[in-house]
Write a structure and sequence with these properties.
With 379 residues, the chain is α+β, with helices and mostly antiparallel strands. It contains ten helices and nine strands. 51% of the residues lie in helices and 20% in strands.
């Protein structure tokens, strides 16, 4: 029964998060079309078939549809040469591009709002799990045990979204000094004092505290004995920031997430071209749903919300790619039509969109096959 509940909650989260991100994207198109007085025929929540008309007032029909993934906006003259001056087709190029770009902008704004909102309320804190205590090390002398979680150094907690590096950097920076450690041991907090190794010892490759076993290598650099890597653990702390810093943190995290996704797209393209039979560095719907469920059940709702911010930035980057039928591909087609004019017929344009859609569908099937294989293999 517990597994059934977990699966149901995971599916609700998946459709809720992904559907919400797509709906926000469509709201961007809707708002900009209305600002430019382009007639909006329908704003749909979910995808057809239609389940219910929510509102039919004025020139726009608001509908609820059966497929619970996002939504759509239907504009007058979108995709044909309608003569209506309020149709999408009748608008100047710059207005068309702005309407299409608005969805991407909304996803970036949403990612920023999520990241800034989490920073405003406080990041979950992370501590370092102790997998190994080096004999004779400062950690052993101080009474640190395997299984402890070091939550604070000199009273300082560390936000999980920056990883373990700031904590480890603080230990290295205070080499040779005596520091106070707040350690969680089971349900208890223990205050310990450790005198860290000297800077010379740290420069020689030893850890300042001595809690991570390094890999043993032979003279040729081959690993003879694997090390024990340090891992992070969520703590019960929160890391808060000054209100005046929140907007900057939101911008920084949005830029970082967007940059990582752009880099990931490049790696994905390389993998498709050079290693088509190997698992790609990307997940399809099944993989995304699994990851959302894993994050929610193991790390909690705040980290799940942070993941939603990353997915929103992801959606923005993917949609701006110059590939039909994505927004970036539609923008590219509009610009090409401006230069080639009537030589690019409506039939050729629709064929381009059809081929692009077929390729996207094939890509989703390809990625999902690897998602399922990973799931069956327990990976």
């Amino acid at each position: 029964m517990d597994e059934i509940i977990r699966t149901v909650v995971t599916l609700v989260l998946f459709f809720g998060i992904l559907g919400g991100l797509i709906l926000v994207h469509e709201v961007g198109h809707f708002i900009m079309a209305r600002l430019f007085r382009v007639r909006v025929l329908e704003f749909g929540v979910g995808f057809p078939p239609r389940a219910k008309v929510l509102r039919d007032v004025g020139e726009t029909v608001y509908t609820l549809n059966w497929l619970p993934i996002g939504g759509f906006v239907k504009l007058e003259g979108d995709g044909d040469g309608a003569d209506d001056p309020r149709s999408f087709a009748s608008q100047p190029l710059w207005k068309k591009l702005v309407i299409l770009l608005a969805g991407v902008v909304m996803n970036v704004v949403l990612a920023f709002a999520i990241f800034a909102g989490i920073a405003l309320t406080g990041d979950p804190a992370i501590g370092v799990y102790v997998p190994y205590v080096d004999p004779g090390s400062p950690a052993e002398t101080a009474g640190v045990r395997v299984g402890d979680v070091i939550e604070r150094v000199e009273g300082q907690a560390y936000g999980m979204f920056t990883g373990l590096e700031p904590l480890l950097d603080d230990l290295r920076d205070q080499a040779g000094q005596t520091v106070a450690l707040t350690v969680r041991r089971g349900d208890d907090l223990v205050e310990l004092t450790a005198t860290l190794r000297t800077p010379d010892q740290v420069d020689a490759g030893k850890g300042a505290l001595g809690i991570g076993k390094a890999a043993v290598r032979d003279d040729r650099g081959n690993v003879v004995e694997p090390g024990i890597p340090l891992e992070g653990r969520l703590t019960r702390d929160k890391v808060t920031y000054p209100v005046e810093d929140v907007l900057g943190i939101g911008v920084e995290r949005t830029v970082t997430a967007t940059g990582l996704i752009i880099d990931g797209v490049g790696q994905l393209v390389t993998a498709i071209v050079t290693r088509p039979t190997e698992p790609p560095p990307a997940s399809g719907p099944v993989g995304i749903a699994t990851q959302i469920g894993d994050v929610f059940w193991s790390l909690g709702p705040i980290v799940t919300l942070y993941l939603a911010g990353i997915l929103s930035a992801n959606l923005a980057v993917v949609n701006i790619l110059p590939f039909p039928p994505l927004d970036g591909g539609r923008m590219l087609m509009l610009i090409l039509k401006r230069f080639v004019g009537e030589r690019l017929s409506l039939r050729a344009e629709r064929l381009t969109y059809f081929v692009g859609f077929a390729m996207l569908l094939a890509f989703l099937v390809w990625v999902t096959a690897f998602d399922i294989a990973r799931g069956l293999g327990g990976g």
